[in-house]
């Protein structure tokens, strides 16, 4: 197993059931549930110096999902060019998430997820096996779809373990 395969496997292992398309909605519902119960003040909490706030983490989920959506679309449509990677920390630094309202960030997350659901649910099963190169690594459309879910669950676990539990919100 390559380092890249090990890296993505940690996200794929987060998916609690074999029905990853169903988990797309379940992970969204859990994320929305958590963020809907936060106050504006709570959403600016970071569990340690230099870590993202809850607002920043929510925008990170939306940004990453958009990158994954583009890769899904490109490879489903037969793109042969190597798609670039992205630096999640650079994106976060340039996002100005903490200057936005929690409500606006949550609305954006909901819309991005709805867009992912429509994209993934309307692909024909055969294109799920299409492959492309992203950040120098070959990957299938289906694996990227699963990464949307696993990445979300990964961060839900971090939110529960490092944010909510520290503040007694769980």
TrEMBL record:
Residue stretches making up the DinB-like domain: 26-159
A Pfam family that the UniProt record links to this protein: DinB_2
Name of this protein: DinB family protein
Domain of life: Bacteria
Organism: Chryseobacterium sediminis
């Amino acid at each position: 197993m390559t380092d890249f395969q090990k890296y993505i496997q940690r996200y794929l292992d987060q998916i609690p059931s074999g029905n990853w398309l169903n988990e797309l909605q379940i992970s969204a519902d859990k994320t929305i549930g958590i963020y809907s119960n936060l106050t504006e003040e709570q959403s600016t909490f970071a569990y340690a110096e230099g870590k993202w706030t809850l607002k920043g983490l929510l925008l990170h989920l939306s940004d990453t999902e958009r990158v994954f959506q583009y890769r899904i679309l490109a490879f489903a449509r037969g793109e042969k060019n190597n798609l670039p990677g992205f630096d999640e920390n650079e994106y976060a630094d340039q996002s100005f998430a903490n200057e936005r309202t929690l409500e606006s960030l949550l609305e954006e997350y909901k819309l991005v997820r709805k867009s992912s659901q429509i994209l993934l649910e309307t692909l024909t099963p055969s294109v799920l096996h299409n492959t492309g190169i992203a950040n120098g690594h070959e990957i299938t459309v289906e694996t990227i779809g699963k990464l949307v879910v696993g990445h979300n669950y990964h961060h839900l676990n971090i939110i529960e373990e490092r944010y909510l539990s520290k503040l007694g919100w769980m």
